[in-house]
Amino acid sequence: MKNFVCAALIIASCFTPIFAIDMSKEIDTAAAKVLPQVIEWRRYIHQHPELGNREVETSKLIASKLREFGIEVRTGIAKTGVVGILKGGRPGAVVGLRADMDALPLTERVNVPFRSTVTTEYNGQTVGVMHACGHDSHVAMLLGTAKVLSEMRAEVPGTVVFIFQPAEEGAPVGETGGAADMVKEGVMDNRRSMQFSVCTLRPRSRSERSAGNLRDSWRRVTGSPSRSRVRVRTGLIHGTALTLLLSRHRSTPACK
Ligand SMILES: [Zn+2]
Fold it and tell me: So what's the pLDDT on residue 109?
């Protein structure tokens, strides 16, 4: 469970160097306090997954939470994308934080109380829908971060833009969507000095690993180049997790 708050802390800690005063303890405390809600949001989103460009209810949930935190909200960007804008109480740059929202056309086979039983039509077939790529966690972590930063907005330098991107896994056949459409619709028009993406970092449990999920097991995601040798022996793997590993192998400071 701590993984969720870890990511929120990592993101929030990015702001620590630019706070006028050291806020790291306050951020730690606030992140620990929001953890139960982050877990609750993540489980709800996990149980109600939606495919790319169809994230209607996920979008409504995000917008309503951001408004609850007193954050300015823009909806309907690239169809179902949401952007939250938090203006801090101190002068400073614009910082973007981004999470993806869509699920995959896969049937969930893990027997947890919040498992997805959702099915839908996809390419002419009835398929299960599942958050198999961690976007449920990404959304929940970014909401948690938005709550934490909104509670200390007086100390936040500049503006934080929370970007919730639809269709990261690709738009349905015959449609456009995702990051490219968000950019076309102006989401990056503000000059931004830094941009971060939310990413799940570690397997959440031994059972999850044994269920076949492969995730990045480094303790932190950093912006520094690194070299790693990875040997993958598996029958089936989701592409983005492999991309993350390979991107590090190529010494690219990337995290999806
Ligand atoms: Zn993904």
Answer: 93
The pLDDT tens digits for 145-159 are 999 999 999 999 999
User: How far is ligand 1, taken at its centre, from the CA of residue 133, in Å?
Assistant: 5
Say how many Å lie between the CA of residue 134 and the centre of ligand 1.
Answer: 7
Residue 243, pLDDT score: 43
Kindly list the domain boundaries of the chain, sorted by start residue: 2-199, 201-256
Q: pTM higher than 0.70, yes or no?
A: yes
What pLDDT was estimated at residue 230? 55
| pLDDT at residue 231, as a whole number | 61
CA of 256 to the centre of ligand 1 (A): 8
- What does each C-alpha distance from 12 to 31, 137, 165, 187 come to in angstroms? 9, 16, 19, 21
For the domain covering 2-199, report its CATH number. 3.40.630.10
* d(CA 164, ligand 1 centre) in Å: 13
pLDDT, greater one: 68 or 227: 68
Q: How far away, in angstroms, is 240 Cα from ligand 1 center? A: 5
| Separation between Cα atoms, residue 140 and residue 4, nearest integer Å | 8
Q: Which H helix or E strand runs over 65?
A: helix 56-68
How are beta strands 90-100 and 194-197 bridged, if at all? parallel
Give residues with Cβ within 8 angstroms of 245, minimum separation 6: 214, 216, 228, 230, 232
Residues, CB-to-ion distance under 5 Å, ligand 1:
133, 240
